[in-house]
Design brief:
The complex is a heterodimer of chains A (about 375) and B (about 160). In chain A, α3 crosses α5 and α4 packs across α5. The radius of gyration of chain A is 26 Å and the shape is globular. Chain A contains twelve helices and six strands. The longest helix of chain A is centred in the last third of the chain and has 29 residues. Chain A is about 40% helix and about 15% strand. Chain A has a four-stranded antiparallel beta sheet. The N terminus of chain B is likely disordered. The longest helix of chain B is centred in the C-terminal third of the chain and has 29 residues. Helices cover about 40% and strands about 25% of the residues of chain B. Chain B has one domain. Classes of the chains: A alpha+beta (about 375), B alpha+beta (about 160). The interface between A and B is large, with 87 and 59 residues.
Chain lengths: ~375, ~160
């Protein structure tokens, strides 16, 4: 028996939570951080919370970050809990990332990708030296971003469209009358998983876990030798068909990060050699996550083709352990009272020790 | 894109509903309050906060998968003159959804349309175009301008 009702901790819990609130506030001589400051100035934390919290709402994510005292998995948990309180109006039409108003778009594989290499707002090529002027209480004036005379034209060609005529890249499959995609929030995990289920799980999955899996794959555990064909960051309109209207309207713009990884596939008896692809898509600007997701998606597709040998290719291993709300819950539940389990273990270990001592004594006697 | 039934006036209504949804709540409120003759309306559906499940496409252009949810607020109103309007807007701003619905209703009335077409719809569209244009100019400024280093060989 793992759980028993225990009473008596109520006052201790209340007081612990009061102390937590005091700790979260920190030194009261320092101004309290506002949620709109978090939304605007810690936007990458906000993006991660929206992405793994699986709910796009910048203000809610900022509130979650504040309430969690900056603990992002805790903030993600708060987002997931909140989303269960809201009704669902329906599902959007699939977002068309090809139509994205791109702020950043790079291809590490193809230098001359049409539209060019747009670096956008990026940490890449920074020197990673601490900038002490940022600690000067905002007294350093911010130099605004430079604006080119000529604006970038949209939409920008995707890497897939560039090579489509040569059939070099594996094409995307579009099924006539495809059934509604698998929904992890309404159906339990099922194996073997379809790619729709996998991508949903990876999109909600923990960035750290997926990053390490992607890294393991690059280092040879199920090597995929990927090349980064394209990363794009920008705004995409979401279309929805309200019942009252019967036609699609845009209900807002979302910031999304998309990553296309490619790796060579030698072909088979009836398939020509081609670049196989892995896909990553996240809410907000979560580039490390989108790249990791694309590599893991690619690795799991090997598994679907019966080539699984490494952890990142084992879909049950990956999908059952990628959700940080579930993982954190199961690891952290060990902090809750397990007094009865321990009592049972104590009884067992005492009996085993008694048996051991008796056996040892008998052996000793026999030897003499 | 899914096959959609042809609805009369749909492309136009789609245009302004999209502009209303993509505007910032503060802009919508300011534009609305800037109108002198705001008609009376009653709520058919009080602003309601919910979610829409956002779908992506596998590989970017393939079959759909579920990416995650987004918060959305919807409302429906009826003007005294009989027109009904709806608002579906990203986020949790009730006033935004309600005003969007009221403006949608006004846009369907030949009498009221001139009041909001310029002062609300065109104004919000301009602000969105400007934001997009500024971002596109910033993006263009970060474009890599490749040049090839000419290798020179010393003679001999």
């Amino acid at each position: 028996m793992a759980y028993v009702a225990v009473k008596g901790g109520e006052r201790a819990i209340t007081n612990a939570h009061r102390w937590l609130a005091e700790d979260r506030r920190g030194d009261v001589a320092i101004p309290e951080i506002e949620t709109d400051q978090i939304r605007e100035q810690l936007s990458l934390s906000v993006d991660r919370v929206m992405s793994e919290g699986s709910c796009y709402d910048r203000d809610l994510a900022a509130l979650a970050v504040k309430q969690a005292g900056g603990d992002l998995p805790e903030a993600i948990f708060l987002m997931r809990a909140y989303r269960t309180t809201l009704p669902r109006f329906g599902a959007s039409l699939p977002v068309e990332t090809g139509q994205m108003a791109v702020r950043r778009r790079i291809s590490a594989a193809f230098k001359d990708i049409p539209g060019g290499q747009l670096l956008g707002p990026t940490f890449d090529y920074t020197h990673r030296l601490l900038d002490f002027t940022l600690a000067a209480n905002g007294e350093t004036p911010v130099e605004g971003a430079l604006e080119a005379e000529e604006a970038q034209a949209y939409p920008m060609a995707t890497i897939a469209s560039v090579f489509a005529h040569e059939d070099l890249l594996e094409p995307d499959v579009r099924t006539e009358d495809a059934p509604a995609p698998f929904d992890l929030t309404r159906e339990p995990m099922a194996f073997p998983a379809g790619r729709d289920q996998r991508l949903q799980a990876l999109a909600r999955g923990d960035e750290g876990f997926l990053l390490s899996l992607a890294y393991s794959s690059q280092r040879g555990w199920g090597s995929t030798h990927p090349l980064c064909a394209e990363i794009r960051l920008g705004e995409v309109a979401v279309e929805f068909i309200p019942d009252e209207l019967g036609f699609a309207i845009e209900i807002g713009d979302l910031t999304l990060t998309e990553c296309q990884m490619i790796s060579t596939y030698g072909g088979g008896i009836d398939t020509a050699p081609q670049f196989a692809r892995g896909y990553g898509l996240t809410f907000g600007h979560c580039e490390r996550k989108a790249m990791s997701m694309a590599i893991v998606d690619r690795a799991l597709r090997d598994a679907a083709a019966g080539e699984a040998s490494a952890p990142c290719q084992d879909e049950e291993f990956v999908l059952y352990h990628s959700d940080n709300v579930e993982a954190s819950g199961f690891v952290q539940h060990l902090k809750l009272p397990h007094y009865v389990d321990f009592q049972a273990d104590l009884q067992l270990i005492r009996r085993q020790r008694r048996d051991y001592a008796e056996r040892a004594a008998a052996m000793k006697e026999a030897a003499e | 894109m899914a096959v959609q039934p042809v609805v009369e006036g749909a492309p136009e209504r789609r245009r302004w509903l999209s502009i209303l949804a993509k505007a910032q709540p503060g802009e919508v409120l300011a534009a609305w309050e800037g109108i002198a003759a705001r008609p009376e309306y009653r709520a058919l559906r009080s602003p309601e906060i919910g979610m829409v499940l956002v779908r992506g496409r596998m590989g970017g252009t393939g079959d759909a998968f579920n990416l995650g949810e987004m918060t959305v607020t919807r409302a429906a109103v009826r003007l005294e003159s009989g027109e009904t309007g709806i608002g579906y807007v990203a986020g949790r701003d009730r006033k935004h959804a309600e005003i969007a619905a009221a403006v949608d209703a006004m846009m369907q009335s030949a009498d009221l349309r001139p009041t909001v077409e310029g002062a609300v719809i065109a104004k919000l569209a301009r602000a969105q175009d400007e934001r997009r244009y500024t971002a596109a100019r910033k993006a263009a400024a970060t474009k890599v301008d490749f040049f090839t280093m000419v290798r020179t060989r010393s003679p001999g």
